[in-house]
UniProtKB/TrEMBL annotation:
Organism name: Zobellia galactanivorans (strain DSM 12802 / CCUG 47099 / CIP 106680 / NCIMB 13871 / Dsij)
Name used for this protein in its record: histidine kinase
Superkingdom: Bacteria
GO MF annotations, alphabetized: ATP binding; protein histidine kinase activity
Keyword match Cell cycle: no
Record-annotated Histidine kinase/HSP90-like ATPase domain positions: 419-518
Lineage: Bacteria, Pseudomonadati, Bacteroidota, Flavobacteriia, Flavobacteriales
Catalyzed chemical reaction(s): ATP + protein L-histidine = ADP + protein N-phospho-L-histidine
Pfam families listed in its UniProt record: HisKA_2, HK_sensor_dom_bact
Signal peptide limits: none
Keyword Acetylation attributed: no
EC numbers: 2.7.13.3
UniProt keyword list: ATP-binding, Kinase, Membrane, Nucleotide-binding, Phosphoprotein, Transferase, Transmembrane, Transmembrane helix
Length: 521
């Protein structure tokens, strides 16, 4: 019975896995189709961008050229150079750059004064009236320095379209003499050479009237396009990639191209073939693989179960440790309260002081346990925050909040374990207590400085001191009967360190080396 159930389960798993494999294969094919379409889109967009860049280059150069011609003519007019000399200069310019086929100087009444074409490089005596042309009217009203750029259209001579057709972009700018408009100068750009760059690239071009000026779809030239550029294939991909270009917002022209659908289909067919072969091979190996996966699943389930148990035990341990630290802190506070209560019945000030200093020592340990049970890290405490709280509490307790005893603390990113924090905290407590008791005995102002540094591993440096009255000459720092100093020396030894008195600064200063005690848990 068990064997039949296992066979049924294995068969179902085999069918499900096969379904997943083939479903993934279909998804991969769809993704591949999307990716190659995206690559083709990027390629075509780059082609369109390159075509636009070429036009921009011609556009910017043409603007500079027509401004150059304007400056040349204005200079000739100012210096009364004969018009024949100006004609020769314009002819030489036209001969240099065969992108332009015509340069003209038109007076303010619309009559051509100079008309030079690059087919003969000489002035044309058949000057024409252009006062009714849109480009003349608009250029004549422009401010000094502005350039009018026409739409791309066919060149017109004597009110008739020139044959053979010549796609033209006109650049005109006004000529001023003594702040008075004298006419306009213009360059006719032959756009044929720019359009010839599209050959073999499957790029088509429409002017701002949607008239076809270059087509890779065999559309009739110079007529309004009949193509819907928003068409999409059954998969939702566009038939055409379109780039609208506008030069200084004057005209909007359209470049568009088709993706290489034949190439996409060929690549997709090859990918389908290889994907289906791979899926078939995977299907044949699934039965063996499923057995291995099942065994690994069982092992993994056992590991997860053990991990959950361990995590639960760790959480319980952390909860217990937090409770222990909380209770230790509470018990230390009870002891502090008992000492305070007991000292209230004592009249001898020296004995009361001993009780009070004992309270300070106990409080230094209580703060550590309080920070641990409030922290997420039960192994280490933020020692800078701890020392700040300890020192601030001592200053407020011994000197009151109105006294100007300042604290300067430097302890960035210092985290110590419990076994190190307690003796080090007691040591700092003793030193600060001595500073407040003796160093600032009759003073309301002062500064306590505490600075931690990382020395050569595994040592730390503690610079601690005050700018108070300093050590009495009768006190032997190394051999003293003072409980506080004895405790400081003992705690230094416990921390595998050394303490030196720094006599280079005013007041009392210590340099203490210590190590973090290895915590056994």
């Amino acid at each position: 019975m068990l064997g039949k159930k296992l066979i049924i389960a294995s068969t179902l798993l085999f069918l499900i896995t096969c379904s997943i494999v083939w479903n993934l294969s279909v998804q991969r094919i769809n993704l591949y189709k999307k990716n190659i379409s995206l690559v083709e889109e990027i390629t075509t967009k780059n082609k369109l961008k390159d075509a636009e860049s070429r036009l921009f280059e011609l556009y910017n150069i043409s603007k500079k050229n027509v401004i150059f011609l304007r400056d040349l003519i204005e200079l000739d007019l100012k210096t009364n150079i004969p018009i024949e000399i100006t004609q020769q200069k314009l002819a030489r310019f036209l001969n240099i750059d065969n992108n332009y086929f015509q340069v003209r100087l038109i007076d303010r009444n619309g009559m051509e004064i100079i008309r030079i074409e690059n087919k003969n490089d000489t002035a044309n005596t058949n000057n024409q009236y252009k006062g009714d042309r849109d480009y003349f009217k608009k250029a004549l009203t422009l401010p000094k320095g502005e350039v009018y750029i026409s739409n791309i259209d066919l060149n017109i001579e004597n009110h008739e379209v020139e044959v053979p057709h010549r796609p033209t972009i006109r650049f005109f700018t006004p000529i001023f003499l003594q702040h008075e408009v004298k006419g306009v100068v213009g360059l006719n750009l032959n756009a044929t050479k720019w359009l010839d760059n599209f050959k073999g690239q499957h790029i088509s071009f429409l002017n701002s009237k949607n008239e076809v000026f270059y087509s890779s779809d065999n559309e009739k030239s110079y007529e309004t396009t009949k193509i819907d550029l928003n068409q999409k294939d059954p998969s939702g991909y566009p038939y055409y990639h379109v780039r609208n270009i506008s030069h200084e917002g004057k005209h909007i022209w359209t470049l568009y191209t088709k993706p290489d659908l034949a190439s996409i289909q060929s690549q997709l067919s090859e990918y389908k073939k290889s994907t289906y072969i791979t899926s078939a091979i995977l299907t044949l190996g699934l039965l063996l693989l499923l057995g291995i996966v099942y065994m690994l699943y069982k092992k993994n389930r056992q590991v997860n179960t053990l991990n959950r148990i361990v995590t639960q035990q760790l959480n319980e341990r952390n909860t217990l440790l937090k409770e222990i630290h909380h209770r230790v802190k509470n018990n230390l506070q009870v002891i502090t309260s008992l000492l305070s209560l007991q000292s209230s019945f004592i009249n001898d000030e020296k004995i009361k002081a001993l009780f009070r200093y004992s309270q300070y020592r106990i409080n230094s340990m209580a703060i550590i346990h309080e920070m641990l049970y409030k922290s997420n890290d039960l192994n280490r405490i933020d020692y800078g925050r701890y020392v700040n709280q300890l020192a601030t509490t001592l200053i407020a307790s011994m000197k009151g909040r109105k006294k100007e005893i300042d604290l300067k603390l430097e302890a960035e990113e210092l985290h110590l374990n419990l076994d190190t924090s307690v003796p080090l905290g007691l040591m700092i407590n003793e030193i600060i207590t001595n500073s407040l008791k003796y160093g600032f005995k009759n003073k309301d102002k002062g500064l306590i400085t505490i600075k931690f540094e990382k020395a050569q591993y595994p040592n730390y440096l503690l610079h601690i001191g005050d700018n108070g009255s300093g050590f009495s000459e009768t006190v032997n720092f190394r051999n003293t009967k003072s409980l506080g100093l004895k405790l400081i020396h003992m705690l230094t030894l416990q921390l595998k360190g050394n303490i030196e008195k720094d006599n280079s600064e005013e007041g009392t200063h210590y340099i203490i080396t210590f190590q973090e005690i290895e915590q056994i848990s």
